[in-house]
Each structure stands twice: as structure tokens, then as C-alpha cells.
Model the fold of this input.
Amino acid sequence: MKTRVVKVWDPVVRSFHWLLVLAFAAAWGLGEWGPNQMTWHFYFGYTVGALVVIRLIWGFVGTRNARFANFLYGPGKVVDYLRHLPDRSPSNWVGHNPLGGWSVLAMLGLLIVQVVTGLTADPKDYINVGPLAGYVPESFSVDLAPQIHEVVSTLLLIVVVIHIGAIVFYKRWKGENLVKPMITGKKEVEEE
Amino acid sequence: MRKSLLALTFILPATAVLAQSPEDAVEARQGYFEMLGAQMAVLGPMAQGKIDFDATKAQIAADNIAALAKVNVAPLFMEGTSTDDMADTKAKPEIWSNMELFGEKATAFHEAAAEMPAAAGSLETLQPAVGKLGGTCKGCHDEFRAK
Done:
């Protein structure tokens, strides 16, 4: 079987991915188990926010596989991809596959909600008040924002577990290593 | 100043004693935390540099916090006033089912509050004291205040 090596992920996408892993893990852990004075949770939250903004911009002006227009597929393609998902062979897909593309969007969407509700939350402890809490109605900052922040933190954890589960599934079931390309930027695919 | 504080220490227990219906208890309870919040609304932003440090204002707020922390709020937490029983409260039923932990959280607040008057003199001493005090707010909210 002939294979060829293709470039899939540019340095911006890879840096974004791994920095997000670090910042998200730190923010999540500090939020759950960190000290009551949440200064570091805030810093990592800001970092997540900055990374997401960069990724959104890159989704419009970045390299081919980084652009939303190129990895958000219609329902037909998604169904088609899903049909072949159980196959015990590599997808050989270059870039985000039709299913993965939408999961990227879902993750980014949840992260945006999480950053916005974090910035605007006022948990009434007077030391962990989001810097933008004063700019939104109190009904939002005091009630809604902390509620959403809590729920979305759980949703994000679930999404991360699914994401890692998918990586393991591709490796074990389909024999396709998706981690290495995210590190080196290069992926080995079978020739047509 | 002393007079107003004196009045405060009388009015609050009086309110507590009068709180007979669950609705009254919740109203008094929320009033109590509003008063705490009003002091923290001065100290928090000052400690975080969002407003200029003002020793006089800081001292008043710190003294008020210490005085408020001395109020026996047991009557305000009367049975049957949790989120299970009423709509207009954020007091979780765990307060009553885990009184021991609730008491620990209250003690942490009392200790941090008692340190406030001596810490209000300078920004350097105020900052860690407010951090510790606000931390006791969060510590209790995490367990016992509904989101």
C-alpha cells in the first residue's frame, strides 16, 4: 500500500491546540479545586479567551485546513462520513473530517460562552468578580452568568472526554494516529 | 459613627427576633447579606485597585463587617426556608442537613471578619485581609448558595 506524507496542520493551529489544552486544563482545575481567591483561574480564562479569538480569526484568514469554510460540511457529507465511521480502516482524511469539523465549532462555541459568562459573572464574593460584570444587567451577572458558567464547565468536560475518546477510537479501531499530525503538522495518508 | 454601629447591633437582632414567618426570615436574611455586601462593595474594589484607597471609608466598612459578623444569625436560618421550600431564596437545603459544615464556614467568616478592623489602616494590610474574607464568602457560597 503506497502512502504519502501531507501537511495538515499549520503552526498556528498546532500551537493553538496545545496551548488551549494547557490553559483549559489549568482554568478548569483551578475553577474546581483551586484556592478561593481565583486570580489564576481568571488569568487562564483570559488566556483561553485570547486563544479562541486568535483561532476564530485564523478560521477566516488562515491556511486551507484551518478555515471554517473548508471544514464545515453539509449534512450529506456528514451522513456519508458517518456511514464509513465504523470501518476498521483509516479515514485518510486531510484536515478536519465532516464530523470533526462540527465538533470543532461546538467546542469553540462552548468556550466562547464560557469565557463570556466568566468575564461577566458576579458570584457575590467581592473578590472573584468578572471584569465585565459591571457592564451587564445584574440579573445576568449575579444569576444567569454563574449558572451558565457552571453548566458549560460540565459540558466542556464531556466534550473533552468525547474528543479524547474519538482519538483513542481512531487509533485502536481504525488504526489512524491523529495525535502525531497535531504535533508534527504532517500526516501519512494512503494513496488513492 | 459609634452611634450608628450601636444602632446597627440593636436593630439587627431585633429584626431577627421579629422574624417569625418564613418570608420574614428570608427577608431579614437577605437584608443581612445586603448589609455585608454593602461593606464588601467598598472593600473589594479598594483592595483590587478599582477605586482609590480611602483609610476612613475602609475603616468604617471594616468595623461594620466585624460588627455584622458578631450578629447571631441563627433565627434568620429558620427551618423550612431553603430552596426546597421557597422560590425567592438561594439558601440550599444542605445548610440544614449539614449544619456542622455550615458552622465551619461561618466560623471561617467570623475569624476573617474579626481581623478586618486592624487591617483597614493601609492598602498593604487590607488586600490580604479582603482576599481572605472574600474567600470565606466563596467557600460558603460554593456549598450552600444556589447558583
